[in-house]
Amino acid sequence: MRRVLPLLALLALAALPAIAGKFYVELVAKIMIMAVFAMSLDLLVGVTGLVSLGHAAFFGLASYVVALAAPDSYTAANLWTSLPLAIAASALLAFAIGALVLRTRGVYFIMVTLAFSQMVYFVFHDTKIGGGSDGTYLYAKPEAKLGDWTLVDFGDSTQFYYTMLGLLILTFAFLRLVLASRFGHALAGIRSNEQRMRALGFNTYAYKLAAFTLAGAIAGLAGYFAAVQFGFVNPEMLSWHQSANVLLMVILGGLGNLFGAIVGAFAFILLQDLFSSLTKHWLLLMGGFVILVVMLLPGGLTRAGEAWRTWRMPARDA
Amino acid sequence: MLEPVLTAHNLTRRFGGVVAVDDVSLEIRHGEIHALIGPNGAGKSTLINLLAGELTPTSGTIALRGDPLPRARPHRRARLGVGRTFQRSNVFRDFSAFENCRLAAQAWLPRTWALHERASRCAVSGAAATRALAAVGLSARGDVLAEALSHGERRELEIAMCLATEPSVLLLDEPLAGMAAEESQRVLELLRQLKTGRAILLVEHDMDAVFAVADVITVMANGAVLASGSPQTVRNDVGVRDAYLGEPI
Amino acid sequence: MDVSILLIQILNSVQYGLLLFLVASGLTLIFGIMGVINLAHGSFYMLGAYAAFTLSALTGNLFIAIALGVVLAVAFGYLLEWVFFSFLYRRDHLQQVLLTYGLILIFEELRSIVVGDDVHGVAAPAALAGSIPLGTTMTYPVYNLLISAACLVVAALLFGLLRYTRLGMMIRAGASNREMVRSLGIDIEFLFRVVFALGVALAAFAGMISAPASSVYPGMGNQVLIICFVVVVIGGIGSVPGALVAALLIGFVDTFGKVFLADYAGILIYLLMAVILVWRPEGLFRESAV
Fold it and tell me: CB distance from C278 to chain B under 8 Å?
C-alpha cells in the first residue's frame, strides 16, 4: 500500500495537464517548485536536525539572479548560463552564512539564521539592486536552446509543468541517494547525537556546512524556476514569512522522509488558497491551523497513521 | 617497561572557584589496563573529558605517543586513535545496534563525498561493525533498536562502538555501571583480551572488578592523585585506606 | 558633524537602545528561564502600541492609558502563559518556533479585525509636546527625552528587582540553571508565569511609551522582534546586563549607520552580529562551557 500510493500520485501528476485546465496546471507546477524548496529544507531540518528559519534567502537570491541575468528586461537570459549561475550564487551564500551560523547551536542557531536572512532581505529591500521594495520584472522567460532548436518553451504552461515534474522527480531521486549514502547516514547520526559523532571522529561542523550548502543550492534551483513562472521578483520572496512557510510545509508533511516535504507543500498551498477564499482575515485561520497541526500531528501528515495508533493505545513506558 | 601511549602532565581544570582536576599526571601504557578509582566527585569523569578533548585544561599538557596534543577537539583526537565511552549511555537511540557500530566504523573511511555509494553496502564498515558486536557478545541483537536494548546491553554497545573505530587508546568511563554479574564478567574478559595491542584507562567503582583486571591503579580524591602503582601497592597504601578503602582488603 | 547634531544622534541612539533593551530583556529572560523561543514577543510590542492608541483615545490622557495598558499587559501575559505557553516547555525548538509563529498570525489578524490596519499617530501630552533647544539651530523633542528617562527608570527597577529581591534571585538562578531551581522545590509554575508576564509587560510598555514618537503600524512587531533576536544573540541568552550592553551597542551602530551609510545601514547590525559570532558564538556575557 505504501509503495502504491506514491506511484499513483506520480501517475496523477503526469496525467494532470490532459485533464485539467490551465489554472490548475499552473497551480500544481507552482506547488512542485515549492516541494523542491521544501525538500531542500527537509535535508537540513528533518535529516540533520538543523532548524533554519532563514532558508528563503537562498530561494530568493536565485530568483533575483535570474531576473538580473537577463541583459535587459526584454531580452531572454540563457538557461544554460543563468541556471548554474543562480545555483552557484545560492550555494555560495549558503556556504558563507553557514560557515558563520554553524558556529552556534540550538536556539542561537535558529535566531541567527533568521537574522542573516533578514540581512539579505534588507540588501534587496533597501538598496537599488533589483529595484528595491518594488521588485523587478522578468519580461522574457529564459531560453532553453541547443543551437537553434528550442528544447523547452517555459512560456507554455504544459511544457513548463512537465519540466517541473521532471525537476521534482530528479531532486527527489538525488536526495534519496544522498540519504542512503555514508554522508547521509552521518547527517542522521548528527541529528541523533552530535556529541557522540564528534567523539567517534566525525568533523560534524564540516558535515553540517556541506549539508547547509547543498540545501541552499537546491533552494536556489527552486527559486530560479519560481521566478521564471511568476515573472516577477520582489524582496518578499526572501522574507522570513517565506522561511516560516516552508518550515511549516516540512513539519506539516512530516520530517526526514522527503515525501513529507512534497505532501506538505501540496497541503499547505492548497489550504492557503482555501483559507484566502473564505475570508479576508485568512491568516487567522492559518495561525490556528498551524497551532493545531503542531499540537495534534507533530509527526506530520505522512506519519498520521502512527499518530492515530498512538492515540488509540494506552501510553507505554518509555 | 611498556611504552606510554597517552600521558598527562600536571593537568589542572578549574570551573570558576572549583578545582575539579588538581595537578594530575598519569601514564597509560601500551598493553596495560590502567584503572582510575576514587569516590564520587573525585574528578575522574572530568579527567576523562580532558583526555578525550571535550574539555580544555586550565593548565598542564597531554601527549599522545610523545607528541603533545594541542587544544584538539574531540573529533581530532578520535581520529588520532583515542576512543572513549560515556558514563551515561550515549548511543544513537533511533538506530539499531548494528547501525550504531557501522556508523562508528564509518568515521575513518575516506571518500565521504561519494554520494552514490550506499552506506548499507559498505563492506569495510559493515565488517568492522560485525566484529565489534561479536567482541562484546551482541551479535544476536544487531537489528534491535538501541532504545529497546536493556541497560546492560547498551553499556556493551557503548564499548562496541568504541571498538569499531579501532582505537589505540580506550578511555572507558564506568563501563560496568548497572551491569549484571554475568555481563560484567564478560566485559572484564573482553578487556583482558583487548589490552594486548592497546592502552586502556578504566574508570570504575566496582572494586572487585578493578583489582581483578587492572595492571596499574591510580586513586583520586578531591581532584588530586592520592596514590598510584600496582594493585598490591595501592591496596597497602595507608593514605588510600584511610580516605577510601577503609578496612584493609 | 557639528556638536548639536552629534548630540541628537547620541540621544537617539540611547533612546533606541533603551527601548530595544526593554523588549529584549523580556525575551532573553523567557529564553533563559523557560527555554522557550518565542517568535510572538514582537507582537506584544505592537499590541502595546495599539493599546496606547486605543486607550489614550478613550481616556484622553496618555499616562492613564499607559498605566492601564501595563496592568492589562500583565494580566494578559499571565493568562497567555497559563493557557498556551505552559504547553510549549516540553516541546522541541522547532515546534515552539511554529507554534509561536501561529500565534503571531493570530495576534496580527485579531488586531486587524478589532482596530484595523491603519497607521496611527498618538499624541504626546500637551505639556510634553514641545522641544528644547540644542545649540543654536537644532531642537530636540521633550517627549523623546521622557522616553529615555522612563526606560532608564524601568531598567533600574528591573535591575533592582533582579538583584535585591527574593523573586529576582530565583529568576537569576533559573536563568543560569533551570534544573537546579526545579529541584530546589521552588514553585516553578508560578515563577514561569511571573517571568512571562513581566516580559510581556516590558515589551508592551516599550510599545506604549514610544508610540507618540514613532508611528503605530502593523509590521512594527516583526521588525522589533528580529532586532531583539540580534540583541539576545550578541548579549547572550539569559543575561539581562548582556541585553543592555548589546541593545545600546545596536542603538548606536544603527543610528550612526543611518547617518553615514544611508541605504546600507539596515545590514550593519547583522554584520556586527556576524563579527561577534566569529569571536564569541555564545554571546558576550555567556560563559562558554569549554
Answer: no
Number of domains in chain A: 1
Phi and psi angles of residue B193, each rounded to the nearest 5 degrees, phi first: -70, -35
Counting one residue from chain A and one from chain B, the pairs whose CB atoms sit within 8 A come to 86
Given pLDDT bands bounded at 50, 70 and 90, which one contains residue A120?
very high
List of long-range contacts for A273-282, beta carbons under 8 Å, 24+ apart: A273/A27, A281/C109, A281/C112, A281/C113
Task: Decide: A79 and A143 in contact? Cβ < 8 Å.
Answer: yes
Q: What is the ipTM of this complex?
A: 0.86
pLDDT at site B248: 46
B165 inside 8 A of chain A by CB: yes
Q: Is C108 touching A (CB cutoff 8 A)?
A: yes
> Could A200 and B54 be called an inter-chain contact, meaning their C-beta atoms sit closer than 8 Å?
no
pLDDT computed for residue A304 by the predictor? 77
Confirm or reject contact between A103 and chain B (CB < 8 A): no
Can you give the pLDDT at residue C99?
92
**Residues from chain A contacting residue C274 (CB–CB below 8 Å):** 100, 116
Angle of the C240-261 helix axis to the C3-29 helix axis, nearest 10: 140
Cβ neighbours of A177 in B, within 8 Å: 115-116
| Per-residue confidence (pLDDT) for residue A183, from 0 to 100 | 93
Gap between the Cα atoms of A87 and A58, Å rounded? 9
Domain with C168 in it: what CATH number? 1.10.3470
Whether residue C288 lies inside any domain: the answer is no
Distance of CA A138 to the CA centre of its chain: 21
Other CB atoms within 10 Å distance of the CB of residue C214: 16
**Tally of structural domains, chain C:** 1
Query: What nine digits make up the cell of C64?
Result: 492613564
| Grid coordinates of C160 | 533592582
Of A1-10, A257-266, C34-43, C63-72, the one with minimum mean pLDDT is A1-10
pLDDT at C129 over 80: no
Distance between CA atoms of residues A266 and B22, nearest Å:
61
Determine the structural domain holding residue C271 and report its residue range: 3-279
Rounded to whole angstroms, what are the CA distances from A82 to A15, A62, A123, A131, C16? 30, 9, 21, 19, 43
Q: Chain C, 243-272: which have a CB under 8 Å from a chain A CB?
A: 263-267, 270-271
CA dist., res. C285 & res. C290, Å (int):
15
Tell me what the mean pLDDT of segment C173-186 comes to: 73
